[in-house]
């Protein structure tokens, strides 16, 4: 029985192995067939691609440029055309100004340079005197440079509407001075009044271009007065009455002169306004007079003296004394040094009193005829030494060193 069971089990295992073999044979046969067919299909596709004519990529789209730019399209030997071309392509006005100013300055530098050469070829072994200008060449140079100095500002005014001296100062002095002076105006008003200044300055320059000095003709005076009236009217359209006066107080030559003349007086705002109105009236009255005429100069000086006396009458005694001191150039120079070196406020007044005392001592010594000459010289030298010592103590070494270079009164104390 047991033997029969084992035989049956063996037969079942054989049957199972046979069935598995048949199944796997069919499966792998089908899989191989499928893989072979797939490979043949893929090979056919690649073969078709290889045998097909090569395909070309699509032609790129052609973009036609209608705004091709080259600088040569803008440049011109005619500066007016050059400027028009730059504006036509939207170049900012500030950039146009920089381009033209640089180009014109270079052109005139080349013209100037020609008159600094004597025409002799450079030879490195020749000493410097060989290239010095001859007297006729020097005379011609001065004549040509004077002509250039007159022509260049007129050219820049005509092309760009700018003041040459003021424009050049922006590169060496202060490019933002106008904005600081006119900070009380809005940006729009500031730009408009500065543009008006350039416009009317240009008209005045053109009206007088070629004038060789001397008195103005009646026609020239009428033309200049008309320009002044039109500028005043144009400013009134932009500014209020107070703004217009503040503009003149900030920008006018009259106000600039007063700021220089009143060093040491330290005017208040109202005192300055009062003096400005008085001085402006005088300047307007003599604006078109020939100041080369001695009679005219004397008349204006008398009017200014009377104006100042009238102004002094409104001051307290202390302020009147300060105004009188401020009319002394030496006192003004010490005031400038006091500001520069942070000296005490009374340094200028102390030094002025020192000077008056020393000069009075010298005057008394020179007036005393009983003093022998040798003793007089010693006494004067003593006054000079003592005054110098006191001045050094008052100003300090640095400020004194600068002051003494032009203080002739100090060096003269020891001489008779």
Looking at this protein, list some descriptive labels.
416 residues, mainly alpha, 18 helices
Average pLDDT value? 82
Sequence stretches where pLDDT stays below 50 over 5 or more residues: 1-29, 38-52, 60-69
Biggest beta sheet summary:
none
Tell the overall outline: globular
Number of helices: 18
Beta-strand percent range: under 5%
The Cα radius of gyration reads 47 Å
Q: In sequence order, what are the helices and strands, one letter per element?
A: HHHHHHHHHHHHHHHHHH
In which range does the helix fraction lie?
Answer: over 70%
N- to C-terminal distance: 168 Å
DSSP strand tally: 0
Can you offer a commentary on this structure?
- This protein has 416 residues and is mainly alpha-helical.
- Helices cover 72% and strands 0% of the residues.
- Helix 15 packs antiparallel against helix 16 (373-395).
- Among the domains are: 1-41; 252-327; 329-416.
Summarize the structure.
This protein has 416 residues and is mainly α. It is built from 18 helices and no strands. The protein starts with a helix and ends with a helix.
SSE layout:
Layout lengths: L1 H50 L27 H10 L4 H22 L20 H26 L3 H9 L4 H5 L5 H22 L9 H21 L2 H11 L1 H9 L7 H17 L8 H19 L4 H9 L3 H12 L6 H21 L5 H23 L1 H7 L4 H5 L4
């Amino acid at each position: 029985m047991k033997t029969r069971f084992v035989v049956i089990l063996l037969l079942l295992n054989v049957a199972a192995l046979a069935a598995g073999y048949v199944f796997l044979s069919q499966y792998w046969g089908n899989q191989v067939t499928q893989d072979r067919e797939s490979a043949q299909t893929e090979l056919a596709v690649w073969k078709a691609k290889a045998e097909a004519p090569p395909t070309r990529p699509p032609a790129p789209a052609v973009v036609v440029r209608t705004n091709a730019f080259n600088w040569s399209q803008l440049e011109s030997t005619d500066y007016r055309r050059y400027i028009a071309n730059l504006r036509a392509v939207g170049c900012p006005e500030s950039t146009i100004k920089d381009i033209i100013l640089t180009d014109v300055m270079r052109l005139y530098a080349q013209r100037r340079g020609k008159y600094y050469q004597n025409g002799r070829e450079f030879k490195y072994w020749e000493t410097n005197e060989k290239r010095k200008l001859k007297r006729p060449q020097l005379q011609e140079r001065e004549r040509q440079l004077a002509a250039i100095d007159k022509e260049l500002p007129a050219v820049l005014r005509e092309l760009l509407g700018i003041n040459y001296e003021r424009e050049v100062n922006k590169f060496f002095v202060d490019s933002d001075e106008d904005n600081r002076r006119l900070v009380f105006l809005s940006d729009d008003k500031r730009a408009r009044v500065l543009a008006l200044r350039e416009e009317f300055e240009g008209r005045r320059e053109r009206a007088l271009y070629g004038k060789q000095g001397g008195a103005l003709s009646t026609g020239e005076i009428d033309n200049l007065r008309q320009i002044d009236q039109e500028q005043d009217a144009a400013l009134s359209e932009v500014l209020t009455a107070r703004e217009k006066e503040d503009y003149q107080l900030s920008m006018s030559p009259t106000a600039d002169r007063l700021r220089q003349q009143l060093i040491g007086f330290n005017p208040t705002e109202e005192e300055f306004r009062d003096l400005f109105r008085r001085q402006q009236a005088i300047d307007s009255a003599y604006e078109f007079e020939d100041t080369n005429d001695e009679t005219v100069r004397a008349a204006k000086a008398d009017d200014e003296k009377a104006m100042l006396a009238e102004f002094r009458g409104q001051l307290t005694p202390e302020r009147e004394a300060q105004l009188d001191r401020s009319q002394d150039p030496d006192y003004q120079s010490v005031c400038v040094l006091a500001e520069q070196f942070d000296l005490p406020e009374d340094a200028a007044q102390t030094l002025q009193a020192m000077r008056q005392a020393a000069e009075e001592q010298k005057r008394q010594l020179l007036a005393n005829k009983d003093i022998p000459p040798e003793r007089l010289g010693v006494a004067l030298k003593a006054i000079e030494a003592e005054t110098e010592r006191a001045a050094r103590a008052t100003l300090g070494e640095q400020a004194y060193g600068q002051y003494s270079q032009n203080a002739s009164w100090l060096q003269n104390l020891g001489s008779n």
